[in-house]
Amino acid sequence: STVNWTVYGQVAYDLTDKLSLTTSLRYAHETKTVTFPSPTISATTSVSKPIPAATLSYKLAGGGTIYARYAKGFKTGGPDPLVRPDIVPPGTPGLVIKPETVDTYEIGLKANLFDRKVQFTSAIFYNTYKNIQATSSGTPAYAAAISNALVNLGDAKTYGAEATVNWRAARPLTLSANVGYLHARYTNADFPGNDYVLPVDAGNHTMINAPKWMAGFGANYDQPINDRLRLQANLLYSYISSFNFTALALPTTEQKAYSLVNLRGGGATMNDRLSFSVFADNLLKKCYYVFGSH
Fold first, then answer.
1. Which residues lie below 8 Å from residue 273, measured CB to CB, with a gap of 6+?
2. Taking a C-beta distance cutoff of 8 angstroms, is the pair 218, 175 a contact?
3. pLDDT (tens place) for every residue of the chain, 294 residues total
């Protein structure tokens, strides 16, 4: 069972007619209890965290904005929900999970160009993680009972950049493109293991589910054919570079880079009350995995 409560407050300041500052503070408290009925074993943890954020923004000509933001993030911990407490005694070192926190720093730009026919957004970011959570497996003696267990690895950092462009190329046609770069590494990150769960040494490995490159292209067509109906079509291409499903970065749990193409076409009434479409997802029949473990 989980009991939580949050207090939230926000203050916005107009420093000038173009420069503004918004600050917020969230104070979260959570109590978690995990109970196994036979035999009756339970474990309880409690945590309280202040979660601040601040955004400084400057209005540009044409409706654009440049901004800088800091925020703290929080992921709950508590008794390991993947491990039965009748197998592993409450309080076993490493199996009461500490909360994961992240400090994120971001600078971004939002701009309208060419008489608002083009919208451009971009951002660069830097994040630092503490007590980052990952998964491990049971030791040989407990492999059948513990297929996965949450553990705290330690520290990690990420940085990168992303950009998106939307272009109204013609009245019925909008084109879009996006690209993102991500450097995501565990730094001082390892779990020593115990009698029940295997150790994890993430070293300087890339973080799980963190492709270095992501990109996409889209085309959206929306054309009235009379005063009641309009024709609609959408093409979406996306690319994801290779990434790994585990912190150990094993070759057997790596997903190779792949691309997807989705296509949709149909029509709708002008008031959007009725619509119909046919679609083909993964048009190129690419095979890829959505989960992997060791």
1. none
2. yes
3. 777 788 999 999 999 999 999 999 999 888 877 776 655 666 677 888 899 999 999 999 888 999 999 999 988 887 777 777 777 766 676 678 888 999 999 999 999 999 889 999 999 999 999 999 988 888 998 888 888 888 899 999 999 999 999 999 998 999 999 999 999 999 988 999 888 889 999 988 999 999 999 999 999 999 999 989 999 999 999 999 999 998 988 899 999 999 999 999 999 998 888 999 999 999 989 999 988 776
**Smallest Cα–Cα separation from 81: which of 17, 1, 155, 19?**
1
Pairing of strands 258-269, 275-280: antiparallel
CA distance 129 to 133: 10
Displacement of CA 73 from its chain's centroid (Å): 12
